[in-house]
Amino acid sequence: MMTYKELAAWWNVPVGTIYAWVARGCIPHVRLADRSVRFESATLEKWLATRRMPLAGTGRKGVKRGKQP
User: Fold this and answer.
1) Hey, which residues does 33 pair with through a beta bridge?
2) Measured between alpha carbons, how far is 63 from 58 in angstroms, rounded to an integer?
């Protein structure tokens, strides 16, 4: 299980961002005590997989972007 600092280093984001995401309930975490939070890498990887967006140009075929007639 990872700490705030370890997760921030893994995702290359500020530690404060991880604190904010936890406070808002945005990311999966385990609260061991009032001030003790940990993150499971397997759970986070599954969660990230559900949030992936298709790469540009690989989405819906035949859909034109821009002005519609």
Assistant:
1) 36
2) 11
- Give the angle subtended at the CA of 35 by the CAs of 31 and 40, to the nearest 5°: 35
Give me 65's structure tokens: 């972007």
- Taking only the tens place, the pLDDT of each residue in 44-59 is 999 989 888 887 765 5
Residue 37, classed as helix, strand or coil, is strand
- Which stretches within the chain are classed as H helix? 4-11, 15-23, 41-51
Structure tokens of 57?
Answer: 């140009």
Mean pLDDT of the chain: 85
Q: What mean pLDDT is predicted for residues 25-40?
A: 92
